[in-house]
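Why do we care about 3D structure at all? Because function follows from shape, and shape follows, mostly, from sequence. That is the central idea of this module. The next example makes it concrete: a single protein chain, its amino acid sequence, and then its structure expressed as tokens.
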Amino acid sequence: MKRLLNWLKAIFNRTMDKVEDPDIMLDQAKRDMQGALVANKEKAVQAITQKNRLQGMLDDAKKRSAQLESQAAMALKQGNRDLATQFMREKMNNDSVVAQLQGSYEQAVQTVEAVKVALKRQEEEVRKKTAEALAMKAQWKQAQIQNSISKALEGLTFENEYGSFGAAQDRIREAQSEASARQEMMDSSLQGKMIGMEDKARDMEAESELEKLEERLGMRSAPAVETPNTVSVSAAPGTPDAAVDAAAQSEAERQIAELERRLQSGQ
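And the structure:
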């Protein structure tokens, strides 16, 4: 039951909102003004009609008085004084009717003129109110447009509009951090170190080949070979193979020292 009452109340409120719509109210006011103007014009037509009828009756009464006066004069000319007196009495009675009709007619004329002035003013007021109604309708439409714009702006969510963009950016940063962590673990592992050593050895070989190329091209002089740790074969005891092994070991130590120097400079 409560839901039914709420539903009926909602329908009633919606209906009242439509009824109280400014466009509908202004149109109704315009119809009311025009209806009142039409009704007043009809009343004015009736008043003018009555005035015209009074004018006709007055004209007829005046003609009747003139006719009775003419008949009385003719009777006097014929020596019939009694008939002339009778015509004159009828004329006097008719003159009183003329006087009454004259007063009514003058009053009717004043009334009709006042009605005409009132109708003219009412027509001007209707035109003025109609123009005001059009202006008010324009203002109402403008207000509706402004409200629609305001509601549309209220629905905008600039802060959360690019939420997916921010989430994607966070995922990318997380992936980059994970990649950096794996690279760090790889660098700290033995395999990473071996790969680094191989890369350094290849760089040294490339550098050596480049120096040899420069020597062949004459771009640099051949460096003097210094073997501070090399053991002379003649001075070293033992077989020639032992001397070769000692020389190779010295060269290996030299290269290791050079590799350590390069590694330290690279770090």
